[in-house]
């Protein structure tokens, strides 16, 4: 049966912009746009590469943009017997670039994806990465997890005492996922009615909403592997830049400023009036921050 069969026309249209690549036994959905130096676009939890739909329009004239869905997200494989560790997600990112013949790339990352990039940088520091990372732009992501203001669902999933309750919420999340995401934005109409259809259908595709509890363990990993990942982050400050939405209620402004304090060599831009999803709430300013960084 075609993967398009259950989808609305707007979701079918999104699927047709990309293709599937086999990586480490998983079917990974990737969208490629433009030509030039490779720009890897790394999404967060609980969304997908669809987050980069408008940003790619602004960057594809300068870069070969690669936006992909991690296993468990979007249109990629969503196996039940899988841990969804950030280490596994880094393996997939590395494997995808190897499959596509990419030997070096700039990176733009958001949310959970920022920690995946920290792991990739740690591997590069160890000379164990199969491609070279040139410049990185970090947008709102709780790499400093202990400073984050968790959403109600994240709180349920983060605690053993409330995990079963959180799992029950995830089983029923399809109808209130988009309103929840809209509550994290500040830009008017950041999520259009068509976007809402696509986001919902990508979430429930192959029962992805039932994978959210396993995926949410990345929050705990950020504590367990703090030394490795924050170490890689700070060692690579000179190749990094930060663009931070000031109105994010999860990866808050205090976190962005603390991140900049840890990496004073990294150019830092505050995007006033923007919430958590900076990459599609204000693609113009995010694109400008990236272009300034790679041109410096």
Task: Provide a descriptive summary of the structure in words.
This protein has 296 residues and is of the alpha/beta class. It has a single domain, classed as Alpha/Beta hydrolase fold, catalytic domain (Rossmann fold), CATH 3.40.50.1820. The chain contains 14 helices and eight strands. It has an eight-stranded mixed beta sheet with strand order 1-2-4-3-5-6-7-8, with helices on both faces. Strand 1 and strand 2 form a beta hairpin. Helix 4 (113-125) crosses helix 11 (226-235). The longest helix has 14 residues, at 86-99. Residues 1-5 have low confidence and may be disordered.
Which labels suit this protein?
single chain; alpha/beta; globular; 296 residues; 8 strands
The percent range for helix content is 40-55%
CATH architecture: 3-Layer(aba) Sandwich
Q: List low-confidence stretches.
A: 1-5
Rg, Å, rounded: 18 Å
**Class from helix and strand fractions:** alpha/beta
**End-to-end separation:** 49 Å
Q: Going across the biggest sheet, name each strand in turn.
A: 1-2-4-3-5-6-7-8
- Biggest pleated sheet: 8 strands, mixed
Task: Tell me the strand percentage band.
Answer: 15-25%
Q: What is the approximate shape? A: globular
Give the number of domains.
1
